Amino acid sequence: MGTAQPELSIWTEKRLRFAIEGAGVALWAWNVDTDKLVLDQPSYNLWGVSSDTNVTFEDLSARIHPADRDRVRAAFAASRAIMGQYEIDFRILIGDEVRWISARGQGEDEGMVERTMFGVFLDVTGRKQAEESNELLAGEMSHRVKNLLAIASGLTSITSRSASSTEDMARQLTNRLTALGRAHDLVRPLPGQGKKDALLGDLISVLLAPYDDLGAFSGRIRVSVPRMAVGEASATTLALVIHELATNALKYGALSSDEGTLDVSSSSHDEEVVVVWTERGGPPVQSPTGQGGFGSKLINRAMSAQLGGTLSCDWAAEGVVVTIRMDRSSLEG
Predict the structure, then answer these.
(1) CA angle 307-308-314, nearest 5°?
(2) Which residues neighbour 117 within 8 Å (Cβ) at sequence distance 6 or greater?
(3) What average pLDDT score do residues 136-145 get?
(4) Residue 311: Cβ-neighbour burial (10 angstroms; 0-12, 13-18, 19+)
(5) Nearest CA-CA partner of 315 in 296, 288, 333
(6) What is the predicted pLDDT for the residue at 298?
């Protein structure tokens, strides 16, 4: 015998309301002739609108993100011709806060009751933020893999210039790749080892060691910084910045030339640490056009969000000079 189905009478209005609120669902009804919207309290709260006001679709449209507004208006206008269910995701602005909303409903005029369409709003901000983080991570991973391939090619090239034999080249290249591994260990301690600080000079030196040609051009990278600690989280961010700068220098700047040199110096003040990256002897420098690639956007975002600092470039013809300014407490934290 099959299991008995629950009686429909158990789904009282109160119990349905409990289920809807538990699922985070907000209800709306839209009169297509008058443009008037009827919202439940969760909808008013979601949109940041007072529940004692009469609301039209045009009123709510003013709170939709400008980049999404025309798309949402067109979608709602077209919903009357849609057969079956529809769904659209968009952003709204509540002061400085951005929320993602998913509006869902039943299309087609025949499904209306007294010229009114019905649907729900869902707050999908958390899901959208997770999707954006995943996209950023995927983009970063793709970018890092491409840079690693460029680094491997560049390291092979500079190693071949100073190696006297294939065995010598293999040894030098292995040493450089091993140095990259040491840098990874320095800035990413294993779980369970507790808090691990790095010294700023050690961190920069280890990260740049693989790029220093140990043959005919020995010592063309110079690091001179005062002794100061770098916290674990800050070390990872700073490593990303140094990695990007070194990759660009290897591709286009001083490290792409036999005679190129790189000088990294630093000064420390009460609340600020300044690192100056100076390239000389490379190809003539040209100031880039446009908004920059993924790497430049990534390091500027990392500098601002995680180190409380800025990164600025002087595109001098004789070599680029990059000035990195960081909040001291953020760097040491």
Answers:
(1) 90
(2) 29, 30, 32, 79, 80, 105, 106, 107, 111
(3) 71
(4) buried
(5) 288
(6) 59
DSSP state, residue 48: T
In this prediction, residue 294 carries a pLDDT of 43
* Residue 209 pLDDT: 80
Q: In this model, does residue 213 exceed pLDDT 70?
A: no
Q: Say if CB 260 and CB 318 are below 8 A apart.
A: no
Nearest to 84 by CA among 106, 103, 104: 106
Checking if the pLDDT of 232 tops 80, the result is: no
- 319 neighbors 282 (Cβ within 8 angstroms): yes
| Angle at alpha carbon of residue 84, lines to 83 and 86, rounded to 5° | 105
Q: Is residue 105 within 8 Å of residue 85, measured between CB atoms?
A: yes
DSSP state letter for 95: T
| Domains along the chain with CATH numbers | 14-123 (3.30.450.20), 128-332 (3.30.565.10)
What is the token pair recorded at 97? 């806060």
| CA contacts within 13 A on the Cβ side of 292 | 13
pLDDT band at 321 (very low <50, low <70, confident <90, very high): very high
Distances in Å between the Cα of 9 and the Cα atoms of 5, 6, 13, 14, 163 are 12, 8, 10, 12, 85
- The highest-confidence range among 101-105, 219-223, 263-267, 324-328, by mean pLDDT, is 263-267
Q: Is the dihedral of CA 49, 51, 52, 56 positive or negative?
A: positive
User: Which residue has better confidence, 37 or 213?
Assistant: 37
Pick from 167, 245, 283, 280: nearest CA to 159: 167
Written as six digits, the tokens of 91 are 């952003």
- What pLDDT score was predicted for residue 180? 60
Place of tokens 């969000």: 305
Tell me the residue ranges of DSSP E strands in the chain.
Answer: 25-31, 36-39, 55-56, 85-94, 97-106, 116-123, 198-199, 221-224, 229-230, 261-268, 272-280, 310-316, 319-327
Neighbours of 124 (CB within 10 A): 17
DSSP one-letter code for 23: T
